[in-house]
Amino acid sequence: MEQLAKILANQSGVVSRRQALSLGLEPHDLRRLVRRRDLTPLFPGTFVDHTGVPTWIQRAWAAVLFCAPREPDVDCLGSALAGRSAVRAADGPGRGEEDGPVVVAIARDRRLVAPSGITVVRTYGLDERVQWNLGPPRMRYDEAALDVALACAGELDAVGAIARAVQGRHTTARRMQDALTRRSRAPRRAFLEAVLADVAAGSCSVLEREYLERVVRPHRLPVGQRQLPDGTLSGVVYRDTALGEVLVELDGRLFHDTAEQRDHDHERDLDAAVEGLGTVRLTWGQVVGRPCCTAAKLSRILVRAGWPHGRPCGTSCGWLAAA
Q1: pLDDT tens track of the chain, all 323 residues?
Q2: How many whole angstroms separate alpha carbon 188 and alpha carbon 210?
Q3: Is the backbone peptide bond immediately before 136 cis, with ω within 30 degrees of 0?
Q4: Pick from 150, 175, 199: which residue ends a domain?
Q5: Torsion-angle region of residue 100: left (phi > 0), alpha (psi -120 to 50) or beta?
Q6: Do 269 and 315 fall within a single domain?
Q7: Beta strands at 130-131 and 235-243: parallel, antiparallel or unpaired
Q8: What is the dihedral of CA 171, 173, 179, 185, to 10 degrees?
Q9: DSSP readout, 14-60?
Q10: N or C: which end of the chain has fewer CB within 10 A?
């Protein structure tokens, strides 16, 4: 029982049937512990050491233990948290979603039918991609965060997943670039490669491109002068887009601004106001997530400055709702 207590302590109060039997317990010993409520079944063949609602980390441990190979000669677990579950484990208690199934990775050549509450993904190179020394074992953060971004339904959600990964300081854009390079197949590869390259370089060229392709050209808005040097009271700055008395600045930062960054932006806007210019600052959400609505609002601003009207890009254009 002392060895059982040690395993429970190391695994957040969770143990598998296989682990318990390897300690010398008999099946009737396990049944007795369950009757006495010293152990409570979670997933088939896994138990937790209390009768209350299991925590997320306990469900994660139970999912990994359930998915471990059953062969008696296999010493390692052979399964690990993957995707959003690996990211959730790395972020720590109270940070991240706790609803939904636990995502577990197993080797590509295995077959496993998982119960409700577990999503199994089969992957190549499992041994090299997992941090087996962590509890529970989990995919390396670069790999897991990239899986989350690749699984997103839209490009803006994928950008948000990258932003959260980099902001959490568990990885860098360059390490995620390397992880993406190792993938033979990846949806939206070109877009994500460009976004990661931007983050690594500290630029916002992708957002500038998306602004032209999604907001300006489809809605017949004026392109304006791009990267226009402007001598201000604070020195020479480069305006992303100058449209007469209207400046459009593209904020390509993917994570929370520091006080210094916010101060720098406001100083640029104040310098523009001194010169009688108005600044419109656009973010990823406005350009990639709501381009038609953004175009409609920007057109109204430009019309007041003497520019011609833009127009909807089609019958389903969000311009019509924003106009």
Answers
A1: 789 999 999 999 999 999 999 999 999 999 999 999 999 999 999 999 999 999 999 999 999 999 998 764 444 578 999 999 999 999 877 666 667 899 999 999 999 999 999 999 999 889 889 999 998 999 999 999 999 999 888 888 888 788 788 877 788 889 999 999 988 888 888 888 888 887 777 666 778 888 888 999 999 999 888 766 766 666 666 666 888 888 888 887 665 455 555 556 656 665 666 566 678 888 888 898 889 999 998 998 899 889 999 999 988 898 876 65
A2: 14
A3: yes
A4: 199
A5: left
A6: yes
A7: unpaired
A8: 130
A9: EEEHHHHHHTT--HHHHHHHHHTTSSEE-STTEEESSSSPPPHHHHH
A10: N
Q: Show the domain range for 242.
A: 207-322
CATH number at residue 310: 3.40.960
pTM confidence score? 0.72
- Residue 288 and residue 241 share a domain: yes
Do 240 and 184 lie in one domain? The reply is: no
Same domain, 217 and 317: yes
Helices (H), 130-258: 141-151, 155-167, 173-181, 189-201, 205-210
- Do 228 and 161 belong together in one domain? no
Whether 46 is in a domain gets the answer: no
